[in-house]
Design a protein that fits this description.
The chain is an alpha+beta fold and 420 residues long. The chain contains twelve helices and 16 strands. It folds into two domains: 285 residues, Aminopeptidase (3-Layer(aba) Sandwich), CATH 3.40.630; 117 residues, Alpha-Beta Plaits, CATH 3.30.70.360. Helix content is 35%, strand content 23%. The longest helix is centred in the C-terminal third of the chain and has 22 residues. The radius of gyration is 24 Å and the shape is elongated.
């Protein structure tokens, strides 16, 4: 890399490579939260934090935190980080790049003898990915008092989530009372998990919003009949109607995606009954995953869906229930002031940047509910993620870390100095 950056790219590569080696044999790159390998990876990160002069602790939510004290106690905390847990068979950079880049910010400040007025905390959030307990963003929700109490009773094998949090060093007994009024601002670096930056030859994506996620269940009821004797024009085939609906959902989402603002809808779960080769399907159940940067786009899609299923049911002689919203989360915009700070940081280090939305969920969405928060993306090869083929160039990650470094320094100068 020709740029003279304030961060050490070799240190970043060393740490990411070291974590990649901590994986299940034959399953690169797998370190799922609450597993022994996850704890091994955590131990490596904690040792590197301590080597950088950070004071480490595990908070009540099971988050690993490295703290660098500021020169003016009481101003508040600037936090930077991501997560080190992975999905099965695919997590060499997803989350890890953000944790190590945040750590490198702390090391670069120390290298240059720069004392921040605010406290600085580097965080590795617990279980950002969907965990063995079936829930995600456990640490960021737990840190900010947003973890549903019922989740603590969710089980996996012979333990529940409360026990899992305790086993990684958290304190489930006081978790529900945890909050962070001291947070003055939060930044997260992440690989894009999409192809836009690579295709447009941009160095950095400045995340305008994390898309809201709405999941909608639809049940199509037809009539079971003999597949060999029932005339083709005398059937109420639930699968045929459901298949038409899947295509219509794709087309409607593609049309909505042509307008400003990120939008996507996917039928990711699908099952039929009785699922026998010689029986006309009597029932089909599907789950739609909808993502919208702009809330009104999701509302418009849902209104279209409510009307369209009635029309489709009549056309195919089946019954389709009213679409049921199983979960419904609103979009989370990035803090306007921090987005401008990140743009200035990009300009300082010479990074080509663009604003863009995130179609994936991140810990930032939960921190943003209690403090100013923003994200940056760095490119990843062909947009691949959640795959063993996931790859990001170390120079791109290092440039992202340099953007974080400059942004943290500006945040220290400009954030509300009265926040306590």
């Amino acid at each position: 890399m020709s740029r003279n950056l304030p961060v050490n790219a070799d240190r970043i590569a060393e740490d990411i490579d070291a974590l990649a080696k901590i994986t299940e044999p034959g399953h690169p790159w797998t370190r799922r939260a609450f597993s022994p390998l996850f704890l091994e990876g955590r131990a490596y990160i904690e040792a590197r934090m301590q080597a950088a002069g950070l004071e480490t602790r595990i908070d009540a939510g099971g988050n690993l935190i490295g703290r660098r004290a500021g020169s003016k106690p009481g101003l508040g905390t600037i936090m930077v980080g991501s997560h080190s847990d992975t999905v099965p068979d695919g997590g060499r950079f997803d989350g890890i790049a953000g944790v190590i880049s945040a750590l490198e910010v702390a090391r670069a400040l120390e290298d240059r003898g720069i004392a921040l007025e605010h406290d600085l905390e580097i965080v590795d959030f617990l279980a950002e990915e969907v965990s063995i307990f079936g829930v995600s963003c456990v640490g960021s929700r737990g840190m900010t008092g947003q973890l549903p109490e019922a989740w603590l009773s969710r089980t996996s094998g012979d333990r529940d989530l409360a026990e899992g949090i305790a086993q990684v060093g958290g304190r489930p007994g006081v978790l529900l009372q945890q909050n962070r009024p001291d947070l003055a601002g939060f930044l997260e670096l992440h690989i894009e998990q999409g192809p836009v930056l690579e295709n447009e030859r941009k160095d950095i994506g400045i995340v305008t919003a994390i898309a809201g996620i709405t999941r909608i269940e639809i049940t199509v009821e037809g009539r079971a009949d003999h597949a060999g004797t029932t005339p083709m024009d005398g059937r109420a085939d639930a699968l045929v109607a459901a298949s038409r609906l899947v295509l219509d959902i794709r087309d409607a989402a593609a049309e909505q995606a042509k307008t400003p603002g990120h939008f996507a809808a996917t039928v990711g779960e699908f099952r039929i009954e009785p699922n026998a080769a010689n029986v006309v399907p009597s029932k089909a159940v599907m789950l739609i995953d909808g993502r919208a940067e702009i809330r009104s786009d999701m509302e418009a899609f849902c209104e279209w869906l409510d009307v369209h299923v009635l029309q489709l049911a009549a056309a195919h002689g089946v019954t389709i229930n009213s679409p049921k919203r199983v979960s419904d989360n609103y979009p989370t915009p990035g803090d306007a002031g921090l987005l401008e700070t990140l743009e200035r940081a990009c300009d300082t280090v010479g990074a080509k940047h663009r604003r863009m939305a995130s179609g994936a969920g991140h810990d930032t969405a939960w921190i943003a509910k209690v403090a100013p928060a923003a994200m940056i993306f760095v490119p990843c090869k062909e947009g691949r993620s959640h795959s063993a083929d996931e790859w990001a160039e170390n120079d791109d990650i290092a440039l992202g870390a340099a953007v974080l470094f400059e942004a943290v320094r500006e945040m220290d100068r400009t954030l509300n100095k009265e926040k306590a």
